[in-house]
Structure formats: C-alpha cells, structure tokens
Amino acid sequence: MQIKAPPNFVPDDSRARQIHAPPVHARYRKFDLYRNVQQFYYIDNHAIQVAQTEHDNFTDLIYHLVYSQNLQADLDKCRVIFRWMTSKNMYTINFRDGSKPNSPEEVLLSFKNKQGTYARIFETLCRFAGVHSIVLTGFAKGLDYRPGDKFKGNEYNHSWNAVLIDNNWYLVDSHWATRYLVSEKNMPENLVYEYDDFYFLTDPEQLIYSHWAHKKEWQLLHQPIALADFENLPLVKSYFFKCGMFFISHHNGVVDAQKGRLALTLGFCKPTNFTYKITFADTGEEMYQGQKLKSYALQHQGQNQTSTFVFRAPKAGQYYFTIFGQLLTGELGVKNIFTASAEYKVIVDKASSDAGPLPACSDSSWGPGVAVDQLGLVANPPDGIITTEDGTVNLEFAKTKPAYVLCKLRSNGDRDEDLERYIAEIDEGDVIKVKADLPKKGEYGIEVYGNDPAKDGDTYTHICQYYVHFAPKSEQDAAFYNESPERRGLAPGQTATAQHPGNYKGGSAGVDNGYEDEEFPPPPPELLQQQYLYGTMPDSRQTAVHTNLAHPQGQAYGTYAPGVGQTDIAKPQKAQITNIPISTQPIEVEKRSVGQEGEAAPSSFKLQPKSGQENEPTPAPAPAGTQQKPSLEAIDRNVLQSVDDHAIQVSKSEHNNFRDLVWDLIYSKNITNELEKVRVIFRWLATKNLKEMNFDKVEKGSPEEVLMGLKTGQTTYAMVFDTMCNYAGLHSKIIPGYAKGADYRPGQKFQPGTNQHSWNAVYIYGTWCLIDAHWAARRIIGKQSTTEDFHYQLDEYFFLPDPHQLIYTHFPDESQWQLLERCATLHEFESMPHMKPQFFKYGLEFVTHRTGVIRSRGDLHIRLRYQADKIAVAFNFTIQFEDGNEEYAGVKLNRYGLQESSGRIASFSLRLPVEGSYILYIYAKEDTPENKDNVYAQVCEYKIEQEVVPSPAPEPYPPCSYLNWGAGSAFYRYNLSTYQQTATLNTREGKVELQIKVPCNMQFMAKLKSNKMSDTELEGYVLHRTVGNTAYFNVSCPGRGEYGLEIYANNPEKEGSTLYHVAQYLVLCHEDVKVEPLPTLPHGYLGKQQRFDEFGLSCVSHVDPVVHLDVNTVTIAMKTSAPMRVTANLIAVETDEEYPDFVFSNCLGNQISFIVNMPAAGYYKLQIYAMPQADPSQQLPGVFNYLINCRALTQAVFPFPKQYAQWKEGCFMYEPGLIPTNRGPHAAQANLASLPSQVNFRVSIPKAQAVAVVAGQNWTHLDRIQGDEWAKVVDVGGLYGQGVKVTLNANFGGDKTSYSTLLEYML
C-alpha cells in the first residue's frame, strides 16, 4: 500500500550541509557495525514491502521508504535504501506523476532507459534521506572478466558508491548485490533478483579484488594500488570471503608453472570443502585426450587449515584454474553448495615430465578430512600423499567410537577386481590397520569407505582417499607433488613463489605493514582471515580519541566530529612551542598534622599577579594542534608523587593570609615548572577542606575574599583556581558555560540560567589546557569520624582532559574556549550522548548511536568498542522507564536486554516491551582478578523513544543469572576456549551442540532456562559430558522458542564441589519440534569418574559416554595398565530397574570388554566399577558411566550367566557367551525344542590348574588348549526349561577336589 507524504513534507537534502570527512579508511569495519543481517529484520522487511509498491512521485517514495519509519541512524537509512534497491525490479519502476528534467524521478527511471546506473540512483536516494553519498567510477572484474585481462584506458566499466555513515566512508555496490545472472548473456530477461549482503559496507581490503576506483583516494585503502596491480590480483568472488578464505602462495591472477608444475595454496578459517575446475584458456575445453584436465591436479588438505592444489600440466599453454568452495557451517544466507570462489590464469612453459592423469578415484580431494572426523576416526598418516620404495603401504585409523572401514586399490590401466588381493584391513578393536602390498611400481589411489554401525546398516560411504607413489627415492624426489609446501617442509606463510607487483603487499591489500606485530593483538578467532587481508593494520583505537568520536547521527543538521578540520575557516594561529621541560628532582616534603600552622612567607616575598603585567598579554585561545600537549606523563613519577604529597601536607595547614599560602604551596619549594605549578594548585584545591579555611584579615576585592567565598557560595572553584594561577605567574581564564551535571538527562535542552557551571583554561608552556577542579574534587570518601579521615577523592580525568572529550559534558559560552579545530554548536552539544569520565578511562568508543536520544522501532542494537588489548573490561546495564520505574508487568526491564562482548565490541541488544520513553544506563569495570571489589561505574546514558513495538509484543530474555551473555570472565580465567564466537546458538531440528576446549580435568554443570518452563521441567533437555579435552553440551529444545543455557564449572582438584558461572548462551529454536527429553543425570555423572585416570584406565571403543544405538546390543572396550577387578550394572532410566545380568565383563591381557544387551528400547545407564587386583578392598569404586540410547529392539536377548568375583579378575570367554533359556523378558521367544543339545565352551582363566563345567549333576572337564585357554563341548540336552544350573568352575591349585564357581547359568 502506498503511503503518501504529508502536504508540507520536504526531504532533507544532504547537499545543503557541508561535510568535513576526507576519503580515508573507516575507523570501523563492517563486522564492528553488525554481525548478523537479522539486526535489520524490520528495516529489510519494510524495504521489501515498499519495493512492491508503486508511488506517484519521488517525494512519496522517499517519505514512505525512509521518513515514515522515522529512521535516524545513517546506517539504518543506508540499509533501507540498499534493500529497496536489491528488491526492486529497476526495469519496471514507474511514477504515476511522470518525471521532469533533472528531477530525482528522472534519475530513478534512467536505468530502465539504459541511461543511468544503480550507483546514481543509490546516491540520489541517500541524498534525499540526508546521507552523504558519492558515485565512484572505475574498473570492476565482472562476469566476463578472466584473470590476465587488461582494462582499456579511461573506459571505466562500472560505478558504485561511497557512503558516509557517522563520519566514516564505507563502500556499497547495490548493483552487484542484486545481480545474479542465470545465463552468461547479460540480458535483462535473464536477471534473477536476489541480494548479496557482501556488497553492503564491504571492507575496502576485500572490495579491491574486484573494484578499482580511478580516484585512488576513494579506494579507501591505507596504500592505494595502481591499475596494473589491480589487474594482477587473483579473481575472487564474494563467496571467497564468506568462507573466510585467504591467499597464501600466489597473490597474482596470472601465475607461471615452472617446468609444467604449479602448487597453489589457500587458507581458510571456516570449515570448508573445496573442489576445482581446469580449462584451456583459448577454447574453454575441460578435456585433454579423453581425460578431464582436472585429473592432472592433486588437491590435498594441509595443516593449519590450508588447501593446496598441485598441477602437472599435460602440455604447454594457458589454462584457467577455478577453485570452488562449500561452506559447512550452515550459516544463514550462505549457500551450502560448491560456489566459484577464486580463479587463476596459469601459463605453462612445457609439459610436466611426469604429466598424466591421477589414479581414478571418487573425490577430487586427497587425504583425510571432515568425513573421517565425523566417523570418529583419527587417520595416520594425516597427509594424503604417501610414498613407498618397496611397495608396502600401512594406514591406521584409530577409533573414538565404533566404526568399520573398507578399502579399495585403484590404478589406471588395472581392473579394480584384480587389485583387491593386494589390500586388506585388520580390525584390532581400538584401531583399524590397512596394509597394501603393491604389485608393481607406479601411481595408485587407495579409496577408504566408512560405516557407522549405529546408523549406516550395511552401507559404506566414501570418507577419504590417498595418493600412493611406488617408485625409487630419486624418482620420488623429482615428482610433481613435491611442489606442495608440506612436502618441501615450509610453513604455509613461507610458500610465496610469485613476486607481488609493485608496492602491493600480498595478502594485505594495500595496508601498510610497517608496524611491529606485537603492537596489535590478533583479531578474534572467527576473523583470522582479517590477518591476511589487513596485515598488521594500525588499530585505530590506539590513535587519538578525537579522530572520530563526538558526532550525533540521523539528525537534520551537520554531523559534528571534533578534531576533523574545517577547510572553509582559517585555522587560528597556533602558539610557537618548545618541548615541555621535565624536572627530575623531587620536592623535600615535611609531614604535617591537621591544623598545623603553615610556613609564613619571608618579608622579602612579594605577590605579583600575572594579569597585571602589561608586557605579557594573555595569549589568544587556540587548539593544541600537533605539538606536545602537557599531561601527567610529562612529569617524572617521583616528582609528581612529591608535588602531590606536598599539596596534601599544605592542605592540612592553616595560613594567616593568602600571601603565606602561596609562598608555602609554591615558592617555598621553588616550584618553577609551569606544569608542576598547575598540578600543586589543582591538588591542593581538590584536597583542602574548604569549610574550615580561615584568614586573619579579609579585605574586599582581595584574594582572601575569593577563597573565603567558597564557604558561602559567593565564589566558585574556577574563580579560586584562576586567582591562585594568577599569583603563581600563570595565564588563566575562567570559562563559564553549560555542563551536563548529575541531574542532566539525555535530550535535555539548555536554557540561560540553568545548568550553569564554570571551569578553567590555563596556559602551560604555550598550550591552553582545560581543568575542572570542582568536578575533580566533588566526591567524598571515608567516614567523617575525625578530621584526619576526611578527604576528597580526586577524579584525575578533570586534570588536563582532552578538549575533544570534555566537549561531551562542558559547553563554553564563548566557542573559542572549546579549544577545538571545529567548534560544536549548542544543538550538537545537546544531542551528544551523556558520557562519564570512565568512558574515556576505559578507552571506549561509540560504534553506533552517537546521539543521546535514540528513536527505536523494533529491536535496538547499541555497540561500543573497547580496548581489549589495553585493559579487560566487563559491562553491565540497567533499563528503566523515564519516570524511574524499573519493571513492566512485574518483570524487571533489564530482562528485555542482552549484553555480549566479542571481538572488542560490546553490544547491547534491547527489545523493549511497550512504546514509551526509557533510560538506558551502561556501566563498565576493569575485569581482572586483582580488582575483585572493583564495582561497575556508569560510562554513558541514553534516552530511548520506543516508537513501534512489534506484534506480538517482545518477551523478556530467558531468566538467566546474568545480563552478560556468551563467555564470561571466569571462562577465560579457566583457560577455556570455544569456536562459538557469539552468544546465540541456533538449533537444527530442535537440537544444538556447544563444544568447549578444556585445558585440564574440569567439572561442569549445565542448566536450561525458559520463560515458559521451570528449571525442573527443563532438566531432561540438556546433557553434558567431557570427551578427551572437549566438553560437549547438547541441548534438545522441547519446542519453538528461546532458551538460556547456563554453564558452571570448576577445577575439582583446587575448588572442591563449588561450581562457578562461566558462560551463558541464548538458544534459538525457530522450528516446531517434538523432542523427547533426555534423562536427568547429576552433574559430573557421565564419563570418567575421579579414579579412572588414577587406575590407569583408558577407553578403547567408546570415548564418548553417550552412545546412540539402532540395535540393542553393544560391546564396550577399555584398556588397563595393571590387572583389575571389574564389574558393571545396567539400569533402565525410566523405571530405575537394574539389569546386572544383561552385562557381561571379559578380560583378556590388558583389555576389558563389556557386552551389554538391552532387553527393551529406551535409555539405560551403564555403570562400570573397578579396583586393581593388588588392592584387597572389596569395595569397587565407580570409574566410568555411560548413557545408552537404545532406539530399537532388533534381537531377542537373554540373561548372561551370574559372574562370581574370581571371574572378574582377568577371565575371558570366547564362547558360548550366553545360553538361550526361558528366563528373562524374551523367554517366550525361546523355542526349547530347537536349542542345541551341545554347547562349546572356550574360556581363558589365568592361574587355573583345572577347569570343569557342571551341568546338573554331570561334570565335564575342559581340556587345556594353550596357556590359560581351556575348551570342550558340554552336553546340555534335556536340561532346558528344567531350572537346572550350569556352572563354570576352576581349581587354582592346592586341594585338587576344591573348585571355585566362576559363572552360573540357569537353564
């Protein structure tokens, strides 16, 4: 539905305002501004709806698109325009009122007339949305571009935009974001309108691979590149960056294959599969002599997430080598199919000496990868290339869970069936060994197929393949695969074989790498790609705060950025400065008691006010500029301490008159350094208890009157400070103006006579500096029980604050005393956020929302950046209605907010429940173990006008313990780590798994929280266990909705049983699912228990304590380091019924196995107990607990024989295991008539002298086969169903008639 603009509506025209933003690299990158397109959910949906509507004229369109939503932020305005353009069919756009020459309507209609561009349309829409944008022209590597192509002269083939968002320039290509071509013909009828978020605010380091602006400054790179360098870059697509890929070996689009060989290496930082295509450059053909050119290259995974492609060309010539990626993370908006990512042109000088197609195997990638990991196998060797001189090949696959492997040998020219006898697999329980004896020299492929018995049935799936070269050492050394960096023994970063053109630094896209690595910390884990793209780019947060801090957004007036020069105004003359002198000799300080008389001035001392000296006029105010600025850092530490201590001691003394005070404070110690003079006055004034100050004589107009006036409120701190500076020989100025004090609220307007305040400027070695002694001394610490205890806490921030920071709270009546290159207006001052000194103390910056009042529709995301490399900062917040009420419908408003910190960005996500006015207070604190009692301090404050609340109204976030989500500070104190970089987990089919790497033995507990279910009801929907050095947390959501996952942990060796909150995550389930709850288990129940490692036990078959089965029997194996006594119990979770006789333990050598039969489908707990045989204790402690999910009953099972103590001391049964009977839950399925009359017994019993089976009254003595092994056939005919016992017995020496019962069957 079209929304008409109001009759008097005039859109804001950005050209009506001057801007002061030179084209330089933005202070923030795209991922700083937003990390998930869901942030723009309402904006995007609105843009799409507007795109489906025709409008009478441009004014109606821009009003409907931007102004009807009251969008304030530049980012939001740009986004809504971008999404409108990527949703609108520009070939069908129409205005009912038509278009006039040079009108916006003419610009928008020009595209379908083939006379305009997307960039011009985007610029026009931005202009009338009040956002500055310009059209950039240059060359782009479009659909028909191939590596090596040259661009002609000035015939620029594309245009895109730079857009100014909060005084930072960003790049946008709305055309490429829209245009997906179905065919290679660039025709309108073949266009498919999707959108690619990559081209919205694309980082310059990424866009330079495809877009070259002819005006070099608009490349927005720290080092712009020449056209020749641009042409030489590899051709990359947006998918390249979505996979987190980066170049390692070759950073040129055209590469030479020396002697017919080439190895290309790429890195990637997200789980990615790769494949490739090779074609002849001149014909586009993929085939050569009946073989795909692809078969002449070998792709294999390297270490540290690299992939190498080794090409041995069959003939000289030119080829295109295209690499495709497939992201495996399932990210929203990223296609899970192989997509073209990068392309090279390869120039081959001659055919490779060993050119030929590789052995024909199923895949294009060689070596173990993701599929092997998913099957729970660890492959050795990990490299996909194997060499052998004698034809023998050995592979090993260690199991972390049950799995089967099948291998096939391949060789070009040989039939597969003829090669079968040369390869075999041997399953040794915990490891599968593969051995191949190759029949003749040559190249072979070994294809490996895997089977997961829990789910695959009889199906085997290709999981990996190996390339094998059987040849003499000399031939191996000369083989093509040695081009690979791993074969040459190089680290991936050392593999560059091509020179980078010109000054262009490979992998850093025009970024100056002239900085020491240690200056800047590495980026967060998910942004490893940035290291290669941006190099060690200077961290903008370490530059002066004023480069881009104070400017509100989304208003109809010019954005204000303190510190950005204004070209149309002559800059004030800067004073000529020399360096600030530094004293090195501390003052001698005498300790004083309170009330002690101060040192009187000698009669020769005369007070001389600076203001009265005609030969030294007061210098004009001017910004400090680039000269050295006075600061505490310019004072020697020992000198500073002595100056401060002297000021404090003098503050305890009483003085008869002002002359004595000035002498005692300054001249008695011969303080001549201007900075030290200012400091001692400031420190005295901020420390002195002014209520008890008295002078013998106070004359009208005297300095004494000024100081005494503080007691009565007749004078101000600024007047006192000015007076003392004047008599200390310093130029000083009282600055009256407005200040945002304790009673200020964001959005408040300043009226004459209200919020009046005064502070000072003081001239120190040629630079005007600012001081607010009143605000520095306003807080009192300690109890006033005695005068000794009374003192003011000093707020150092107000001693020489940066004018670019003080402008947020102090607005002088005379603008020149802002001491800024460009002065702020009162309107701009009123619009700035309300910030506290701690904001600057912690080095914070606004990434979004630079106005004190935010108008919000739907969800709101506020982002600050913090200096993680400088100081660990923790954040908190409170939300309240403007009237002070902190609750809505009985729920704390804080519950409608979520704070998370990641990648140096602190984000505050709010979804407020009802329309109205709110106040958001943001707090921060230094988060280090040393500052345990460090409380949160307020850093800034916003007023939020919530104009639209979605329907249904938002719910509070799940009721978790903290407002901070994601990994907490304790998480890092325990040295835990995770690949999960955000606080949000999205489910698939209602389930999600979180993995946390654990550095040592840790205990964990997990809780699930929901607004709709109690903690008790949710207990069965979260399960955790530790496998090796990884803790797994599995959540199965009971239904659609939001859940909080709280994780607690401790180090049991140091902290006993108390667990501490380490992290909490928001689990989003957007699916209608029906999930059965998992069993509720005590924390720490699953997996190995306290004495497992102590006893030297290790898992062989099932490392993971959660076992899912599609059958009702499983064998679990463990290894021992010493002889053990073991037993086990099986418990049905639902009924708590015990089934000890459905578990059978076997010991053979150093391996113990437990055969477990489940009598029905469902969940079971398997509890394993053990004790070394050398320990006489009869109590066997629990050592490992499993949870078994038996999903199907596939066979009838019967009770195992009863196992007596001596059986559990190292005995093993080969057969019969169990004997079917008419006992147990499946007794009815036992057909007694068909059961065998004879049963073969074969057992291993250490130290036995004789072994016998007693069936009823009949004894059958078993024969010793070898060692401890005994066997014989036992007659049981006629005993079935009679309730007869069949026992296995052994004599262990001594009395030959004495037998111990080991096993007991009941027939």
Automatic annotation (TrEMBL):
<feature type="region of interest" description="Disordered">
    <location>
        <begin position="591"/>
        <end position="629"/>
    </location>
</feature>
<feature type="domain" description="Transglutaminase-like">
    <location>
        <begin position="110"/>
        <end position="176"/>
    </location>
</feature>
<protein>
    <submittedName>
        <fullName>Kyphoscoliosis peptidase</fullName>
    </submittedName>
</protein>
<dbReference type="Pfam" id="PF01841">
    <property type="entry name" value="Transglut_core"/>
</dbReference>
<dbReference type="InterPro" id="IPR053041">
    <property type="entry name" value="Transglut-like_Superfamily_Mod"/>
</dbReference>
<dbReference type="InterPro" id="IPR002931">
    <property type="entry name" value="Transglutaminase-like"/>
</dbReference>
<dbReference type="InterPro" id="IPR038765">
    <property type="entry name" value="Papain-like_cys_pep_sf"/>
</dbReference>
<dbReference type="InterPro" id="IPR056564">
    <property type="entry name" value="Ig-like_KY"/>
</dbReference>
<dbReference type="Pfam" id="PF23265">
    <property type="entry name" value="Ig-like_KY"/>
</dbReference>
<feature type="domain" description="Transglutaminase-like">
    <location>
        <begin position="707"/>
        <end position="775"/>
    </location>
</feature>
